[in-house]
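ZP: hey, is the flavin-adenine dinucleotide complex queued? I don't see it on the tracker
AM: it wasn't, my bad. submitting now with these inputs:
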Amino acid sequence: MFAELDDKTRDLKDKLTAFMAEHVYPNEGELLDEGRVENRWRHTPLMRALQEKARAQGLWNLFYHHGPEGQGLSNYQYTHLCEILGRSLAAPEIFNCNAPDVGNMEILATYGTEAQKERWLKPLLAAEIRSCFAMTEPAVASSDATNVETRIERDGDGYVVTGRKWWITGAMAEDCKVAIVMGKNDPDAPKHQQQSMILVPMDTPGVTVERPLSVYGFQHPPLGHAEVVFDGARVGADNMLLGEGRGFEIAQGRLGPGRIHHCMRFIGLAERAIEEMCARAASRTAFGSRLSEMGGVRQVIGQCRTELEAARLMTLKAAWAMDRHGNKAARNEIAMAKIFVPTVTGQIIDRAIQVHGGGGLSEDFFLAAAFAETRFLRIGDGPDEVHREALARAELKRAATREKETEQ
Ligand SMILES: Cc1cc2nc3c(=O)[nH]c(=O)nc-3n(C[C@H](O)[C@H](O)[C@H](O)COP(=O)(O)OP(=O)(O)OC[C@H]3O[C@@H](n4cnc5c(N)ncnc54)[C@H](O)[C@@H]3O)c2cc1C
């Protein structure tokens, strides 16, 4: 099923690996500086300089397959690169491959009008601006997106957007210029045709970024996660994406690749955690023996390698299925990877923290931040339970069909 890596992807992978070693790991502390107080939500000159370098080396928009601004890679090819850039939380944005901009660029490229692409996609592909995706609301259980209550109401030649969103990644950044907002335009329509998605420039009167939210205390500057209020924000009718009532259609298209990209990145994070766990275990002695010589630690390392291999294969299989059968047909593979990979990689990172002792919980190692990152994805982009429920539905349907066929 899995093809050998082609020359182009192998070449990009080598270049990416070298770039990470030369420019990313040595600058990680500065790039992820959570302690920065001033200009916290502004991209630093260092980030800009590294983006320029990456772009000059052709390590830019690696996910993008809609035109010459990207590398035209399949999901399977990109998986191998995403794993490398996933090894550092600082890296995705350096290559313009970060959430939520990647997902928003996918939406604009797939569903945007020419005018919408010109205004928003072009500067996003050049990382001149950032964007956010606003679906989740504090007042309702948003894992069921039909609950979303924000209103998008037609008013003359435009739409008026009213609602409160939270956990909006990217909205804290000074460069965040546009939100893709999901809301109801027709509460009386059939359940999955009530929602629309609309582009709302962040400087529209009525849009207020109220506060940053943190994940176990990590605020993830400069993009951050924000609570955002849309208080009668009025935009032109040409800001509607795809058409009224088609929000779910867009959401489905966006989330498939997005979920798999997260899994790919986490494989890289966990791979690095195993490497550092082994290095640490080999360098420390307790009770007269190296940690790496202790049976308990060795069992942990063997278990981590086994689980990571399973996670990697599931992710590769999902990427392969997306390429071969399309995102919709690959939804079960995507769901299984989305459930399995964040849990398993989180456990691996947690074990690496344990082997590091107190240091593992500190900011001196990347592990604590990495653990928080994997933990978030057991909720973000759909909680585990929702994906298991979808898998159970498909499984039970298959069983019922089998039973019917046997009866005939
Ligand atoms: C760091 C971070 C970044 C995020 N970024 C964004 C973003 O950029 N844009 C955005 O719109 N949102 C974002 N989110 C929000 C995220 O997508 C939601 O938190 C998620 O969809 C769950 O919605 P909820 O928080 O309302 O949980 P709820 O819907 O209230 O669900 C709570 C819990 O109920 C349980 N549950 C739900 N359904 C079922 C079921 N069918 N069976 C069994 N149990 C169930 C699950 O355990 C679930 O975790 C982000 C979240 C985090 C933490």
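AM: back. Residues 100, 133-136, 141-143, 167-169, 215, 225, 376, 379-383, 385-386, 389 surround flavin-adenine dinucleotide (CB under 6 Å).
ZP: great, adding it to the tracker
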